[in-house]
Amino acid sequence: MVDAGVLRAHLVAVRLAGEVATSREDSLRSYRLFAARDPRVLIGIDPQRPWKQPELLALMAEKCGVSADPRHTSGPDVIDPELTVAALDAFAGRVRDVARRGAPVLFGTGHPGRLLGFYAGLADALSAVGCEVLTPAQGRCVDILTRFGLRTHRLDYVRGVALVREPGAERPGCEPGVHSHSPLPVRVALEAAAEAGGPLPELVIGDHGWVCGAGQLGFEAIGLGDVDDPALFVGEAEGAVSVAVPVDDGVRSVYYRPLTRYVLKRACLSQ
Q1: What's the predicted TM-score (pTM) here?
Q2: Which of 75, 63, 6 is nearest to 231 (CA)?
Q3: Is 156:138 a contact under the CB 8 Å cutoff?
Q4: Residue 164: helix, strand or coil by DSSP?
Q5: How far apart are CA 8 and CA 16, in angstroms?
Q6: In the chain, beta strands by DSSP E
Q7: pLDDT of 174 over the 60 cut
Q8: What are the CA-CA distances from residue 258 to residues 9, 15, 197, 266 (Å)?
């Protein structure tokens, strides 16, 4: 089991928090694009009010621990590990609530190469206590605008976690899925669940467009967000997202295992 002190040390040691790989330049660029309402950075959130870059910087300083000084414009960015642990506690609280009710849940990630294992561990634990882990619209095609133009992807599930693949990427040895910020996959999944007349998720757990897209549609959503993903934290500030956990979302997948164990312990789901 992992206690808070051990987890904080782990976060800093593997750069999940503390000084992270995300650069200050990338973070500030994302804040500028969000202020301009660029859909590539909104990732499904429709802000209730205008957010100017200084306001976004202040919000990210509060939620993530980045420097609030606008004159700090280069170098690695930072995440306060205390804020990460506090957000994981709140995240675990929402997981505990759905576990106690045996409520249906939906998992999805735009970072399958890094975060699939984190979500899959939670999906396994919730399934074991009677929560239905939903898999709507499996195999459905989704057209997503990428830097290479409009590309068709296929919605798939691995260990109960939704992701998107490029056609033909199911061969052995292929990556589990592609990196995507798009909210379109979660919209397709939720629409398919509603059309089928089956259960709808009482909680959506994930990152990027999965959290923001679901939250914007009125579903309770919680997830992980890097310091260059302001949409999750704006969504949390405005009430569309229940919990946004500040953490680097691009380190080795094995480094997220202690986070899974910590959440399960806090949610009273660990064996």
Answers
A1: 0.95
A2: 63
A3: yes
A4: strand
A5: 10
A6: 18-23, 76-79, 105-108, 141-146, 149-158, 161-165, 203-207, 221-225, 243-246
A7: no
A8: 11, 13, 37, 12
